[in-house]
Amino acid sequence: MPPMDSPRSVPAPFDRPIFDRRAWPMDGRLDYWNAPDGWPLRRYRLGEGTRGRMLVLGGRGDMIEKYLEVIHHWAGRGWAVTSFDWRGQGGSGRLTGDPLCGHIEYFGQWIADLNAFAADWSAEGEGPAVIVAHSMGGHLLLRALAEGMAPPDAAATVAPMMGVRSAPLPRWLAAAIAELMCVLGFDRKQAWTQKEDSERQRHMRQKRLTHDPDRYADELWWRDHSRDVALGSPSWKWVEQALHSTHAMETQPGLERISVPLLILAAQNDRLVSTPAIRRTAARVPGARLHVYGPEAAHEILRELDPVRLDALARIDGFLDEVVPR
User: Fold this and answer.
1) From the CB of residue 12, how many other CB atoms can be counted at a distance below 10 Å?
2) What is the pLDDT along the chain (326 residues), one digit of tens a residue?
3) CA distance 67 to 73
4) Are 316 and 263 in contact (CB under 8 A)?
5) Pair type for strands 40-46 and 79-84
6) Rounded to the nearest 5 degrees, what angle is found at the Cα of 135, between the Cα atoms of 142 and 74?
7) Burial grade of 154 (CB within 10 A; 0-12, 13-18, 19 or more)
8) Most exposed of 82, 218, 237, 294 (fewest Cβ within 10 Å)?
């Protein structure tokens, strides 16, 4: 296998079948899985699994619809792909009366959901089992593994949230403000305003996420056509929990105990998560492989322009082909 920082050959655009990113694949299965406390998590499954089974974890504010393109890609490579919406977002309900507020009381709830979901998913079939996780999903996966979650055969994290970009504020001040807002009773309120009808704000948000305006427009299309999956800014409690959880992973032991073959992809100019923190994480996980993209990539690497997106898919596919036997 070539070094992880070497360029990858990818199919020419005219060699790839057209995929409708604004439609569910005809042969997928959309249903609900109930957490141990009865909370329904929306689940999607696609693929027959001749290669093995893959669990895809999205990030904060995401919904399954954003990842249909990559789910279809991996299903086409023989993986039986499963994905779900985190509690409180996507099609898995809300935790406050504000349908646009991304709230969680404590990240441990998501860790519990992930452990229970992954246990059921692992028991569903035989063969290799791998997990691919983006952003907050990457953080939750690595935290769960560090805390003793039953490991998959391999894992890949894409722009994992191992540190939150709080600039221009230092982390300690951002954490203090978030804690104060929670004490003052704003814990279940949106931490900032996300004006969906503002073209300027939409453009700024797109630049933070991806250089591809078409794939960003796909997300807006899904939000506009399925308002029950739309989500806005996080709550102050989410901000407090994110800063606390990432700081705890940075300063406490645990990452060193992860034994899963791990690939990490990151973007040097990521404006949402801390790339230096990702580098430090990669250095602590035994055998972890890291590739960092330059200015050509923003936060959503798997939803970038094709030169980046296809390179990322090729790196993940090559890594899984090497470390996970067929």
Assistant:
1) 7
2) 334 454 454 444 444 568 999 999 999 999 999 999 999 999 999 999 999 999 999 999 999 999 999 999 999 999 999 999 999 999 999 999 999 999 999 999 999 999 999 999 999 888 999 999 999 999 999 999 999 999 999 999 999 999 999 989 999 999 999 999 999 999 999 999 877 678 888 899 999 999 999 999 999 999 999 989 999 999 999 999 999 999 999 999 999 999 999 999 999 999 999 999 999 999 999 999 999 999 999 999 999 999 999 999 999 999 999 999 88
3) 10
4) yes
5) antiparallel
6) 90
7) buried
8) 294
Which residue in 89, 97, 75 sits closest to 26, CA to CA? 75
Tell me how far CA of residue 303 lies from CA of 45, 210, 211, 307, in angstroms: 20, 7, 9, 11
- The residue with tokens 């890949």 is 156
Side chain identity at residue 4, one-letter code = M
Quick one: which of 46, 40, 51 has its CA closest to 27? 46
CB neighbour class for 5 (10 Å; exposed up to 12, middle 13-18, buried from 19): exposed
Place of tokens 């990490």: 264
